[in-house]
Amino acid sequence: MARINHNIPALVSQQSLSVSDRSLRNAMTQLSTGLRINRAADDPTNLSVSEQLRQVIRGSAVVTRNAHDATSLLQIAEGALDEVTNILQRMRELAVQSANGVWTSNDRNYMDVEYQSLKEELDRIAYQTQYNSMQILNDETTSFGSLGGPSVIHLGVNNSIGVDTINVSIQSVTLDALGLETSGIADLNSVYLAVDELDDALFSVSSNRATLGALMNRLEVVVNNLMVQESNTQAAESTIRDTDFARMTTEMVRYQILNEASTAMLAQANSLPKSILGLFDQ
Asked: Are strands 151-154 and 134-135 parallel, antiparallel or unpaired?
């Protein structure tokens, strides 16, 4: 039955053309951006999951930098402590040498000159060793872990104390902290006391270095774990958000064909009412 007020075939063709055109634009957007989800309407649920995964990915990258920065600080501290150990070993050599009865008081005074010079250099190292303008080998208020308290290294993507953080303390190696402020080897009584003081100081510094070494090893494990976590999380996020080019290319060709077919059929449907004019010619 021929009608002119309502062209049903044209309406059907228009609807089909609208659907295929919208699908074609979506396919072209995905192929041009490389992303399956370009706006919230594309997949609201998986968009939320993807954004949470992105938080973990970007947080892991920052935490990795945190770990590298902390390792750099610890390496600077350990390097300085290595030199402090050498100074203490030389001071102990001088103390043991001065304890020998073959030396005169003048000889011991000469040895004490070097001994006191080494003390001054040890103290200078304790106050001069810095990272990012923070002193790291003394307990001044401007130092790392001020007033002897621990500093927090953030090594997690969240904010759970003890889970995403570790506390780092570097013991002071100033003369006062090591008990060497009044140490000297100018006389035998002082020499015997100095040997005991130096033994205690060497034990303290060695313990400090062992702690730093353990922390550096721990940070290396943290970095390795973060790299694995970041890689796996990126793979998961890619599965959710990235375009499957093989499938979407096939879909685009399909929508192009449907779009062209719908356009052709719409043209045919629009020409159907014109056939009614032929009735007036008869």
From this structure: unpaired
Q: Per residue in 119-168, pLDDT tens?
A: 999 999 999 999 988 889 987 755 676 545 678 888 888 888 778 888 88
Give me the number of domains the chain comprises: 2
Q: What is the DSSP letter of 275?
A: G
- Same domain flag for 235 and 248: no
SS3 for 100?
Answer: coil
Encoded amino acid at 230, one letter: E
Q: Residue 136: what are its φ and ψ, rounded to 5°?
A: -120, 0
Same domain, 250 and 229: no
Return the pLDDT at 79. 95
With b for 16 or more beta-carbon neighbours within 10 A and e for fewer, the 22-44 pattern comes to ebbebbebbeeeebbbbeeeebe
One domain for residues 127 and 229: yes
**Three-point CA angle 276, 281, 278, nearest 5°:** 25
Q: Taking the alpha carbons of 22, 26, 27, 31 in that order, is the dihedral positive or negative?
A: positive
* 259 lies in the same domain as 169: no
Answer yes or no: is 74 within a domain. yes
Per-residue pLDDT reduced to its tens digit, 72-126: 999 999 999 999 999 999 999 999 999 998 999 999 999 999 999 999 999 999 9
Interacting residues of 133 by C-beta distance below 8 A, sequence separation 6+: 142
The domain in which residue 223 lies consists of: 59-241
Q: Which residues touch 220 (CB under 8 Å, ≥6 apart)? A: 71
**Cα–Cα distance list, 181 to 95, 137, 208, 236, 280 (Å):** 15, 16, 19, 59, 122
> Is 49 within the bounds of a domain?
no
